[in-house]
Amino acid sequence: MFYDPVKSLLKRYGQSVSLQLPGQAPDSYSAIIQPLRYKNKMYLEGDFSLVGYITNDAYLYIGPGNKEIATCVRDARLFAGDAEYFFTRADTVMMNDKAVYTWAVIKPVLYDEGENV
């Protein structure tokens, strides 16, 4: 059996997530999610608009390379605990023609109070 150090690290240090790709059953595995740090130590806060409060929260996702996130960024959803995220950008890192890991920028899905989900 091939030893995959990234998969081993994700399983050891990551959290349980569930990925929902269009037309597929949810897939559970371990990934790392952490707040995305901005340059100049500036943490962007939310803004108010005509339609209400908009948050600029963004998170870095690092997950296994065998997920097809990069090909369907707009339609994929990630669930971690009680949070739901959408992908704004994703790419798979390759080494020797093997997908090693996928990184992405994710943002929380926000619903209005009282909205049926």
Short description:
The chain is mainly beta. 8% of the residues lie in helices and 47% in strands.
Describe what this molecule looks like in 3D:
This protein has 117 residues and is mainly β. The protein has a single domain (5-39, 55-108), classed as Thrombin, subunit H. It is 8% helix and 47% strand. The chain has one helix at residues 5-13, and strands at 15-20, 27-35, 47-49, 52-54, 59-64, 77-80, 83-95, 98-108. The chain has a 6-stranded antiparallel β-barrel with strand order 1-2-5-8-7-6. Strands 3-4 form a two-stranded antiparallel ribbon. The protein starts with a helix and ends in a 9-residue tail after the last strand. The model has no long low-confidence stretch (mean pLDDT 81).
Which stretches of 5+ consecutive residues score pLDDT under 50? none
Number of helices: 1
Q: What name is given to the CATH topology?
A: Thrombin, subunit H
Sheet with most strands: 6 strands, antiparallel, barrel
Rg from alpha-carbon coordinates: 16 Å
CATH architecture: Beta Barrel
Amino-to-carboxy terminus distance: 42 Å
Which descriptor suits the 3D outline? Answer: globular
Give the proportion of residues in helices: under 10%
Given the helix and strand composition, which structural class is it? mainly beta
Order of helices and strands: HEEEEEEEE
**How many structural domains can be distinguished in the coordinates?**
1
- Mean pLDDT equals 81
